[in-house]
Amino acid sequence: MSNLGDLSIEELSQIEVLSVSRRPEPIREAPAAIYVISGEDIRRSGVTSLAEALRLAPNLEVARVNSQSYAISSRGLNSVNADNKLLGLIDGRTIYTPFFSSIFWDQQELMLADIERIEVISGPGGTLWGANAMNGVINVITKSSNDTQGGLLDLKGGDLVQRGAGRWGGRIGETGTYRVYGLGFGQGNTRTASGGDARDDWNGKQAGFRTDFASRNDRYTIQGDLYENIVDTPDGRRSGGNVLGRWTRRFVDGSTFQVQAYYDEQRRSDVALTGGGSHQYVKTLDVEAEHVFTWRDNHQIVWGVGYRSWNDYFANNANPFTLEPASQTLNLTNVYAQDTITLREDVRLVLGSKFEYSTFSGWAVMPNVRLGWQANRQNFLWAAISRAVRSPSRLERDLSAPGIVNPSPDFNSEKLVAYEAGWRTQLSTRATASVSFYYNDYTDLRTTKPNPVTFLPVNFGNGLEGYTYGVDMWASYSPFPWWRLDPGIGLLHKDFHLKPGERDIAGTQTVLGHDPEHQVFLRSYMELTNNMELFVGLRQIAGLTDIGVPSYFEADVRLGWHVSPQVEVSLMGQNLVHRWHAEATTANQIPRSFYVGARWKF
Predict the structure, then answer these.
(1) How far apart are CA 434 and CA 415, in angstroms?
(2) I need a labelling partner for 239 at 20 to 30 A (CA). Which of 251, 303, 387, 587 fits?
(3) How many Å apart are CA 281 and CA 268, to the nearest integer?
(4) For residues 528 and 318, what is the distance between their CA atoms, to the nearest angstrom?
(5) CATH number for the domain running over 4-601
């Protein structure tokens, strides 16, 4: 087991990230607010799901809604109805749904031991990643199968969560490797405000594979997953799967060309006790090609083209709300380019834009200007102006209920112009820090407009505008080689209003979300002895006064013991301060929980 201090702060700052420029670059030179969650941080923290792992990023708001659901956003506008401005990717596969423009986190399970890192960008990423990368980007990158050879068994069991995962990796000929995995889990109930069971427990199973082949100039990857989750309703199911292929060629001059394609299917169904229910699916086919090269020594250019097709279906007989038409195919075509220009040795200018056309919402243009200045060896400053959009969802255009709501074919994309500035510094050989400021100017946000004569039926409009501003700060400090402290703070202010003459009967909070004005984090990673480690995670989250959720302080603690290089056992306590607490709603309270874990490599 390696010491946390084996890598110096300078070496850590050279870790390469992909999400800012869609090409590898040292994190200390990336002109954006980006935080990296490493696979080792995930293991040491003892989290049991991808959504819980995202709590390790101080530049995200993560609020658990119930046993199954989370509201996750960056820089505000977070709630079940409003967390639709954050793009999620797993190995280049987009995971948001066009039904609501949000992410169903209960359909995004992974074998956590296979995650190499998670790159979290605060702020727009539309220039390279497209619509819905409005407030931020979460890019989950899993390990190559070459790095997961042999066997791994990972078990966790406790009063709220039970989880088991197994993996085997091997070789295919002289140039190929593979891994296969399977996992199963059960998640217990949250609590009602009165202390009873909320009856939202669920369980699931998943299996998948990945293969990687390499030659002198080419890399090939094929991977896929299948899953089925059962929730606590008479017939509540979430199922689906995906398969992805990627080919990358590196040329003699150092340029690369990559082609990627994937097919993804997500299905959800719920049947009520009365016999009514809803059924929906989304089938996604996506193909993209990308070229990265250097021109005239001082221009690093990335450009690409992409095509995506969504075929969806929604049926509901539990209430009068339906989508018209029930099934639709949406096509998305885009071209993008970005040039990183070295103006002088210490100054880089980034210029780029994406042009995206949707058969649903027409053209969207998302330009981006960034400037980075390496003031000296320890200090990097950057600033950016970006435009991003969120495309209309199927619900916003096609929702219908007789006498209540009409389809809204005139609902347009929500728009953002973001102004950012940041400072990244190496304070000493043992400490780094990052500070980013932002001002987000939003226009054409969603409103629910009443009929001017009869009040009902209503329809969706673009009558809301306003701004947010705030600061994201985090640092890393190692007082000793065996101890690392990661503090973080997020501050947020919002100010929105209706455009002149506009009305909104649903209330602006359905669009603006419920956001804490501040978040404070402290993570401690300690190696107590050569084979004992301790993680302590503290968080203080301001209250959501508009919906009556009080502020809360919580602590997670994990003690791990490496019995041998192959065997590890652990004890974990989550949400230890309170018996239960609310995070996203007062209806569901998140309980304190404990589990024991064991991991065996063979």
Answers:
(1) 27
(2) 587
(3) 6
(4) 56
(5) 2.40.170.20
Which tokens go with 495? 């100010």
DSSP 195-212: SSB----EEEEEEEEEEE
- At 260-317, the pLDDT tens digits run 999 999 999 987 655 678 899 999 999 999 999 999 999 999 999 999 999 999 999 8
- Assess contact for 161 and 188: CB atoms under 8 A: yes
Q: What angle do CA 291, 293, 295 make, to 5 degrees?
A: 135
Per-domain boundaries in the chain: 4-601
- Report pLDDT digits (tens) over 501-513: 999 998 766 788 8
Q: Which two tokens stand for residue 602?
A: 């063979």
Q: Which residues pair with 475 in a beta bridge?
A: 433
Q: Which amino acid is at 142?
A: T
Whole-model pTM over 0.90 = yes
Q: Which residues are 338's β-sheet partners?
A: 302, 352
Give 242's contacts (C-beta < 8 A, 6+ positions apart).
93, 224, 225, 262, 263, 264, 265
User: CA 560, 561, 567, 571 torsion: positive or negative?
Assistant: negative
Do residues 280 and 290 make contact, with C-beta atoms less than 8 angstroms apart?
no
Sign of CA dihedral 199, 226, 52, 153: positive
Q: Find the largest Cα–Cα distance for the chain.
A: 75
Taking the C-alpha atoms of 290, 291, 292 and 297 in order, what is their torsion angle to the nearest 10 degrees? -160
Give φ, ψ of 130 to 5 degrees.
90, -175
From CA 329, how far away is CA 334, in angstroms rounded? 17
